Amino acid sequence: MPLNSNERVAVVAGLRTPFTRIATDYSTVPTRVLSSHLVAELVQRSDLDPKQLDMLVFGQVVQAPDAPNVAREIVAGADLPVEVDAFTVSRACASSYQSTIDVYQNILTGNIQSGIAGGADVMSQPPISFNKKMTEAMVRSTYSKGSKLKAFKGIKLKDLIPVQPAIKDPSGEYTMGEAAEKMAKENGIARADQDALAHRSHSNAAKAWENGWFDEQVMNVVLGPDYTPVSNDNNVRGDSQLEKYAKLKPVFDRKNGSVTAANSSPLTDGASAVLLMSESAAKAAGHQPLGYIKSFSFVGIDPNWQMLMGPSFATPIALDRAGLCLADIDLIDMHEAFAAQVLSNTQAFESKTFAETHLNRSEAIGTIDWDKFNISGSSISLGHPFAATGTRQLTQMLYDLRRTGGQHGLITACAAGGLGAAMVLEAA
Amino acid sequence: MSIFRLEKNDGVAIITMNDPELPQNVLNMRIQDEFEAVIGNIVADKELTALIFTSDKKDCFLAGADISMLQEIDSSEKAFDMCMLLHTMMQRLVDLPITTVAAIDGACLGGGLEMALAFDYRIATTRKSTKIGVPEVQLGVLPGGGGTQRIPRLIDLPTALDLILTGKQLNAVRAKKAGLIDKAVLPETLMSVAMEYAAKKKPKRKKSLKEKLMGSAPMRAFIFSQARKKTLKATKGHYPSPLKILEVMQRGLSTSLKKGLEIEARGFSELVVTPESKQLINIFFAVTDLSKDSGVDSDETAREVDKVGVLGAGLMGAGIAYVTANQAKKMVRLKDISVDGLAKGMAYVGKILDKRVARRRMKVNQRDRIMAKVTGSTSYAGFKSADVVIEAVFESLDLKQQMVADIEALNSDKETVFATNTSAIPIDDVAAKAAHPERVVGMHYFSPVEKMPLLEVVNGSKTADWATTTAVALGKKQGKTVIVVNDGPGFYTTRILVPYNMEAMRMVLEGVSIEDIDHALEEFGFPVGPIKLMDEVGIDVGAHIVETLHDAFGERVPMIDGMETLIEDDRKGKKNGRGFYDYSGKSKGKQVDDSIYKLVGVNNPGHRELSAAAISERIVLTMLNEAAYCLGEKILRSARDGDIGAIFGLGFPPFLGGPFRYMDTLGAATVVEKLNALKDEHGARFTPAPMLLELASNGGSFHD
Fold first, then answer.
1. Is the whole model's pTM more than 0.80, yes or no?
2. d(CA B301, CA B295)
């Protein structure tokens, strides 16, 4: 197998749908339909000849029951050639980091020349299931011999109530929100600081929209049955006022907590994707890349300790692999699951003690320059369709680098189960 | 090589038809002897228990009678004899004592279906090319191989009438539902299922309750009277064949099959020699001819087209996007100045598809795939890779020239064809500032694009043949009948329409009522009258074009009073609800807006009374004359194109065969004489075209 050892992997184009709060604009749209719409638009606007596409990898966290391998559905739904290989990955909130890396590695090893990576979640259409007792009875009635009716013996009325999917891993002790609350307390993150970060996120995102920085990155979604165009994120508050954040009650610890709906990322619907190609293939086809992927890392930590500290563990490894230090990084996009999680991580980035205790390093990761940090908003303001966040960050970072004239960018995210992801990018 | 191949296996004979000399299997005089021989062999072989008849011609079971044979029939008696001969052939099959099965894969039309009806069982494949029906009515005749008699004896009467009167073609599933066939099967299993049927006894077909009900004499009489009313309304009496079909079926059903078949043959022999049928057959051949025409005289071939850019997502642009994605199966990149405009265009495409899904003509995933081909933008993102860009913005020369420049700037290396969908702006003007005028061509679509069958491709003086033929090939893939015309003011269709519309307007100014005018032209055979048509097309569009033509042709296309007044009164026609007709309230365009007369200075409308014939003759002559100018000036490549353009683009009565066929029928001398008389009365606009004068003097005709 020929290794493309001298090849860089180019990000030729990136695009996302507007991100909208759960049960709003996309409430009738299945994930596969929204994703297909996005991918069709990405292919056409980047002037890609579909016959040149080798692979499509998509992340999906909330698995739609009608499309477990949503990637393959997208190949059909976006009218791509049947030869395009397609599979679906899941790595919680870092799912589209994974889909990107899958395509990236396949290009690096010379298996393929081009691929689309992305992720999508439409929380508005989750798989609704019954409780364990009822589910087992239904399977029995379908597959075992004997009376269909008998299978339902012992089922009570309350068993017929469907179970809402919860955002919690069966192996961990805490839900996401509880983990964030725990981190806020253990790391001493003040409520006011969390609110300020959330306010900053909204203000930056609103400014980015106002200045048209998202125009090339966000498509107009036009889907039936009524074909009303959706053009904007609907979670971004253009009129964000810091005072108002203080008024909200904590959600996960009503008495002593500090994590509120306003300083957390909302449940969001949306899709995002990037087109990756080997540098030579991109050049041959006349594409002008947005940038290149320089390095990446994935890590795992104990989810019952501080589940969302992944960025602080993944970042130094990705930097090492890129041969860079934090000071070389021109812009950072750290996924904002919760303000408490972001501030716990930035604290850790700057802490020598943290580096010594947890990273086995003598020096801190580096100092955060807030003028370079989440400058166009991140998940608290833009929203967080779980599997769409990674490629949203990737695209946004490359456009931000291009606009500001920066060279290197870092994107990083925490994920359920104590996972962390980071990627170092380079502008074209 | 023979046409029928006969194999025998365990008492089952299989006849496989494949005419080596023709692209399709058809019924003609040539096959008769061979057919007789092969059936004779079957009859003589007492060992046989069953017969299966099939074809291994690709996509064709039996496509019906050879139409060129119909064209050559010059007497009723010959036609009658031919029909009776066909009936004898069918009867030979019916009389076979063994079980007979027609195994249908591919087109099974007209005489093909009639032959299949002579078998005991019919099974057909679900392949897309398997079409079952009797389209004879579309050629102005009737199914003369027993169809009018055997179909209503097999299935219920309303369904039979619908099939025979419309000529619609069914796929296997719908044919099974209609009762025409016994089973719809996958192509791979056709012969094995045919063997199963061959093992059965001859069927005793019982009438269903519905068939019995519909078959009772009073019910039958009622159904026929309803069908007759509907037919008269639809054809306005211009087409003899549907009425003859009704007569033949009604009379045939009240007697024996044998007598019915003779009535059918008589009916067929009367229809096939009518001028209406001759003209419809002419059109059939012209369209077939056009489908093979590259549109250019050189050997240049069409370039590959994968992606089509469409500028402007209005009614036209969206319609073009639809036919490009749905029919041509190409990627479409749509651009509009606003997101709302874009969304409207995409909604237009989506809703046509949604309707097809609702009617179960299409599956949801098919709809999604087609929809995925249509993406849109408010910028030129994604236009760089377009192989053809079609502009469908409003008629502004500056804007169109700007778009040519924009597209050229995107990627000058790529030889993108720029097609302008203008109805009157000369292509040379659009290309005037282009760096590559050889890539600029006209593609004049008709609204609504998804319904109108014509595309007029316009060749600018610098347009390269490869660009023209690429546009022609794309148009055909979009499902259009394409004619190629040379550049000139109004090209062909618009140019012959303007004098026609303006003459109608002049009559209004003379005091003839709008109702009389529109009625007269509908009587003549146009689907709508000229005044109503102006409302449909847009009065502003019409007024603009008159000016263009007047600038080009001077006194032969004079300006007209009243048009400006209408524009000043903001009357644009149906699109803004203000026109010659009243679009408010209940009228919805059915009643004339009487205030229009006063507006254009007619004080006592309707005071001038002309016969319908006098009205239509004067108005139609302007169109005929202008068409002759177009052919003489080589705007048209052939009279054939002129006929098809007028019929498919403007609704010229098909039974007259088009302007040139019609002038040939009238005789050039007569046309010139009438024009000269009108010229004396009304002025220079009736000056006969030089080509007409020439033909009048040498006794020639437009068509050979």
1. yes
2. 10
